[in-house]
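Protocol step 4 of 5: obtain the predicted structure for the target chain.
Materials: sequence only (see below). No template structures provided, no constraints applied. The aim of this step is simply to have a reference model before the mutagenesis design in step 5. Sequence pasted as it appears in the construct record:
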Amino acid sequence: MAGANQHFDAVVIGAGFSGLHMLKSLRDKLGLKVRVYETGDTVGGTWYWNRYPGARCDSDAYIYCFTWDKQLLQEWEWSERYPEQHEILRYLEHVAKRHDLKRNIQFNTRVTGAEFDENTNLWTVHTDKAEEVTARYLITAVGTLSDTNMPLFKGLEKFKGKWYHTSRFPHAGVDFTGKRVGVVGTGATAVQAIPEIAQQAKQLIVFQRTANYCVPARNGKVDPELVKARKADYEGIVQRIRESFFGQEHYFIPKSVLEATPEERESVFDRMWDAGGFAFWLANYQDMFFSQEANDVCADYIKRKIRSTVKEPRTAEKLIPKGHAYGTKRQPLDTNYYETFNRDNVLLVDAKIDGGIEEITETGIRAGGKEYPLDIIVFATGFDAMTGPLKALNLKGRGGRTLDLEWQDGPHTYLGVAIAGFPNLFTITGPQSPSVLSNMPVSIEQHVEWITDCIESMRKNGKTSIEATPSAQDQWVAHVNEIVSATLMTTANSWYMSANIAGKPRAFLPYLGPEGVGGYRKKCDEIAAKGYEGFELA
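Step 4 output (structure tokens):
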């Protein structure tokens, strides 16, 4: 058996933003022997797998990067406000090369399971290469959106054309020229892909289950003077995003939208709309997430924008979101998304109006009793978010307990970084941490730094195991649920609420703390300062 007797201080699963930083930190700061396992054939994680047309980040590039390499912050030049997939992958490749990280990463290797040995306080990790290695610490850097959700569509196996899921797109790309293409889904990924595919395809048919509130990205080159100013102020920027609510330089307006005059709020909405990006979502009036009446005012502005952009009234009405409050689902940033439905070669099929997908036939999709002939189908159906990637690892904690069993009614974690019954396991941006409700690199860096400090403290104090106590975990789960229940977030059938996967228990997956990312950081630091309160060290 290959590598049967190899032992590491830590095994890290995944080589995206999280895995690269975790490796760098444990290896170079603590001098540990680390092995990283990565399923892909190079680094990148999300940016290795997601190669669909239009794939790009939607946090501004100047904060969508590592902040621990101060020199690289000054040297690296992004080509635009929201760089495309290939540019972000090139950045991560550069980081890996610059810090010689690949020598500790084993590519093209999937972790198939791991179990904790209570006698030795070690994890035994198994891979699809028939390897078996042991490690004191097991750290998951698997990403929050990496376990592909491919619904079981009746008849898919009969389809004679080509089909793809956006998260597993061919590396060579797909030529849609002259093809009849169907896109299934209208979430953040589809909103990026649809305008791109429409420019190539002979005909594009979009199959929509739920209309989304989209706001403009306003992507493009960034003014060189602004780039210069940001580089001069990186210390201030890093401090601000670490202390902010969402890991971004966005701040709520500290008054009710209902207190503002119609003219005042229209002016505010126009300013945010024209600026583009997440401002309309994350820097709006503070009661938008709490009061349905306040939310309706903000939502109405977007609905008016949709109606004024989409020329055909019936199509515009299909694109108007119904049944969920604005901001309670993942905010898509769009570039010509609504404008795309004005094209002669684009048709929108809405499940609630035209009838949902009944089956996939040999030659296309049948929906609402009508068959739509297609050459290519693109499934933009998202992911089994947050809990899916962790459950897929087949981890076994004390007494052989599994996450499937422990999380029957939703995730149970302490701080989203540890799980009772799973000693020496750390989950970077795990469920019930800010993660997907923040600019991801900010939350990743916070977790990596905290985990590194924790392991360093254990080694200094002669401890070989750390585990969240069940009572601390129960209190954290109750706190996560109490905070979110005061908002409108729980009213939507979103993937935040686990509602996109049939049979998945309804539970809010991330953490929406009272002070967001900044408050969560403070809380984690306090827990560490109190000798890792809520953890049992042995």
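Step 4 remarks: The two ends are 32 Å apart (CA to CA). The CA atoms of residues 115 and 400 lie 7 Å apart.
Proceed to step 5.
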